[in-house]
Structure formats: C-alpha cells, structure tokens
Amino acid sequence: MASNLAYSISSTVRFFRSLPYEYRHIVLEQLTGPASSPILVIQLSFEDDAWLYVATTLPMAIDERNWLSADRLFVLFVALVTVLGVSFWVIRGVTRPLARLARAARQLGDDLEAVPLSERGPREVAASARAFNRMQERIRSQIKERERLFSAISHDLKTPITRLRLRAEMLDDAEQRERFCASLDELDTLVKGALASVRELDLDESWKIIDVRELLVSLAQDLKVQGGKVSVAGEAATLRVKPLSFKRCLANLLENAIFHGDRAAVTIRHGAESLDIVIRDHGPGIPDDQFQRVFAPFVRLEPSRSRNTGGSGLGLSIARHIAHAHGAALNLANHPSGGLVVTLHFPCRTVPCTSLR
Ligand SMILES: Nc1ncnc2c1ncn2[C@@H]1O[C@H](COP(=O)(O)OP(=O)(O)OP(=O)(O)O)[C@@H](O)[C@H]1O
Ligand SMILES: [Mg+2]
After folding, report:
1. Is residue 265 in contact with ligand 1, taking CB distance under 6 Å?
2. Is the residue at 115 inside a domain?
3. What total number of domains does the chain contain?
4. CA 281, 283, 287: angle at the middle one, nearest 5?
5. Is 328 in the pocket of ligand 1 (CB under 6 A)?
6. Beta carbon of 263 within 6 Å of any ligand 1 atom
7. Would you say the CB of residue 250 lies under 6 angstroms from ligand 1?
8. CA of residue 277 to ligand 2 center, whole Å
9. Contact between residue 261 and residue 233 where contact means Cβ atoms under 8 Å apart
10. CA separation for the pair 267, 278 (Å, rounded)
C-alpha cells in the first residue's frame, strides 16, 4: 500500500514536470487555492513505463453554508419575473380575443346589429372571429328577409280579404253569409296579429334609464280607462331599457292579468342581485303543463273563455321576446291561493338597475 502511494506520488510529480512550463502555475493554483474548483486526475498505465494522464477541473462545488446567497436569489428573482411577465403577455394575447368572442356570442341574441369582431390575433382565434362574423351576418340577413317576407304576405292578403268580405255581404243566404263573414273575421285577426307581431318584435330603439314604478303607475292609469283594476306596490327603481318595447311587454302582461284574471296586483322587488316585477292576478291561472305552450305564437287556451278579449294569442310570445332582448327572464307560476303569478326577472349583473329608496 505504502509503496503504491509512493509510486503514485512519484508518477504525479513526473506528470507535473512533464507539463509545459506555462501551465504549471495554473495546476498549482488549483491545487493550493482555497476556493478553487477540484481537479480530477485520471492516470492509466499502458505499459510499465507508459502512463496516460487526463486532468480536468470539476465544476465548483456548492458551498453548503451559503447556497442561497443574495446574488443567486437576485438572479432567480429576475428570471422568475421575466418568465411570469412573458407568460402573462402571451396568455393575455390569446385569451383576450377569446373573451371578446364569448362576449359577442352572448350578445348576439340581444343585438344582431352589434359591430363585427376584430379579426386580428393568433391564427386560430382570427379564424374563429371570421367565422363568427360571417354567421352573425347570415343570421341578420335571414331575419331581415323573413320579416320582409312576412310583412309582404300579411300586407298582400289584406286586399283580397277586403274584396271577399264585400262579396260575402252580397250573399242572399243569411246563414252562409254569417259563416263566411266569421271565417273572414278570423283570417283578418290572424293577418293583423302577424303584422303586429312583426312590428312589435322590431326592437330597433335606443336604450334609456327609466323609473319602473313611474311607468307601471302610468300604465295602470291607462288601463283604468278601459275598466282594468291594477295596483302597484314596492319600491321605486331605475332600469336601463328600450322604453317603447318594455312598455309593450308590461302592457301585454297587465292586459292578460286583467282580461284573463280579473285584476292585477304588481309588486316591484329590488334585491342585491336582481330586480323583479311580479304581476299577480285572481283568475283561474294556467295549468302547469301549458306554461311552455302559451308562449308560442297564436296559442290561446280555452277559446270559449278568452273569446271575449278578442286577442290573437301573441301577447305572451311578444312579451317574452322583449324580456329576453333585455336580458330578463319571464316566468309563470300559479299562486297557491289561485291566480297566475308572472315574474319579470332582471339580474342586476347584466341589466343595470338601481334602487331609488
Ligand atoms: N293571466 C292569465 N290568466 C289565465 N290565462 C292566461 C293569462 N295570461 C295568458 N293566459 C292564457 O294564455 C293564452 C295566451 O296569452 P297571450 O297573451 O299570448 O294571448 P291572448 O291574451 O289570448 O291574446 P293577445 O294577443 O291579445 O295577447 C291566453 O289566451 C290565455 O288562455
Ligand atoms: Mg294577451
């Protein structure tokens, strides 16, 4: 063992001497310096007197006592801030157009005339925005075309109906004449209803802040003239609406409460999250399984009961269309002690409303 060590030392000395003179001080410094990197020396014997020496410095060993030094922390901090900053910038660049797309999709139902989306941004997002804009354009033109067609048909039907009525008046058979006229009256109501529905579904009007209570009180006064009893309770609150359409919606609901349900009691409820306009009447209500059906155009329940109102079955359909265009829900329920309860529910998150209390 001792002889091996002696041999190894003598070999190392020989190796040292064999180094070019100008490198010797580097090796010496490495061997003697206090915080120098360790040196790895590999010596392989080929023959008795022939050795291969390989010497290299190893990476600096981590000083266990000071591995979390201030400058290391600083470098880590700068790297972290840079990575976070760049990631935030990249993610924001991708998610912003996506958020715009989601907002536009939400608003599409309410406002078909909304400005088209910007088609810039990452390739996939730009393609989605382009597809969305094309879809919006197609829906808009189809709705316009449908309304134009509907108005044209309704309008063109009016002239032949009038002509037929004149001819019917000339019939000699009284019974035939009466039946003919009744059928024509029915057709006339349908045509008028169709025209009214096209007109009333046109919500091309600007938004305005109104006082809900004030509007309901003025509607109640108008209906009183027609013999309707309407009471208004609850606090005053403002709401951002399209005034004429919103008035039409409330009027349809109040007329239903009066004509199908005797009298209307309206309550305005303004909570932290929503504004509710609740209309209750004292009529027979609507069977639970018919709640969806009565919203369909031209649907009237028990025609014998509601014939005297002369309606066409469009009131609820129009009211719900207007409610949805305002971001509100229109719900029906039967009161436990009789009568229908109609609730217009405006979530304050989407519909700006404030209490005036
Ligand atoms: N408050 C109510 N109480 C009982 N039934 C109701 C009430 N409101 C609506 N209905 C039923 O729902 C049907 C549809 O109502 P909707 O308002 O759409 O049409 P309408 O009142 O018959 O005619 P109009 O087009 O003039 O409003 C009514 O015919 C009626 O049968
Ligand atoms: Mg009605």
Report:
1. no
2. no
3. 3
4. 105
5. no
6. no
7. no
8. 17
9. no
10. 5
In tens, the pLDDT along 216-241 reads 999 999 998 888 899 999 988 889 89
Measured in Å, residue 188 CA sits from the centre of ligand 2 at 18
**Cβ(198) – ligand 1 distance below 6 Å:** no
Distance 269 CA to ligand 1 centre (A): 24
State the Cα–Cα distance between residues 262 and 267, nearest whole angstrom. 17
Q: What are 174-216's pLDDT values in tens digits?
A: 888 888 888 888 788 777 777 766 666 666 678 889 999 999 9
Residue 210 is predicted with a pLDDT of 92
Contacts of 181 (CB under 8 A, 6+ apart): 165, 168, 169
Question: Which positions ≥6 away from 12 have C-beta within 8 Å?
Answer: 41, 43
Same domain, 238 and 348: yes
Residues 159 and 248 reside in one and the same domain: no
Report the C-alpha gap between 50 and 59 in whole angstroms: 29
Distance 314 CA to ligand 1 centre (A): 8
